[in-house]
Write a structure and sequence with these properties.
Shape: globular
Oligomer: single chain
Largest sheet: 7 strands, mixed
Distance between the termini: 40 Å
Structural class: mainly beta
């Protein structure tokens, strides 16, 4: 069983920044792909960014150039640096660790509002 815990959400003004962190309780973390998803009220959960076990990244179009995903295998963490935030980025952000099965965190709320 892998425990996944997100942190770093909060309230920020448009144009501001937040840094989300995803911590996983597994010594095999370095072998797993990890992704950030988000879900806004009334909408489906959607992929935001993804990082492979060997550090390759990809982003959905609406965050390219604004968000950066990175991993620190020594700390079993993946971060999502979010810059130039917009009100439409408001959502609960979830971390997914793809091990032998999918492990989701409980989510962290990000609210972008004046």
């Amino acid at each position: 069983q892998v425990q996944v815990v997100e942190s770093g959400g909060g309230l920020v003004q448009p144009g501001g920044s937040l840094r989300l962190s995803c911590a996983a309780s597994t010594s095999s973390f370095r072998f797993y792909n990890v992704a950030w998803y988000r879900q806004a009220p009334g909408k489906q959960r959607e992929l935001v960014a993804h990082i492979t076990s060997d550090g390759r990244t990809n982003y959905t179009d609406f965050v390219k150039g604004r968000f950066t995903i990175a991993r620190d295998n020594a700390k079993n963490t993946v971060t999502l640096q979010m810059n130039s935030l917009k009100p439409e980025d408001t959502a609960v952000y979830y971390c997914l660790v793809v091990a032998r099965r999918d492990y989701w965190g409980q989510g962290t709320q990000v609210t972008v509002s004046p």
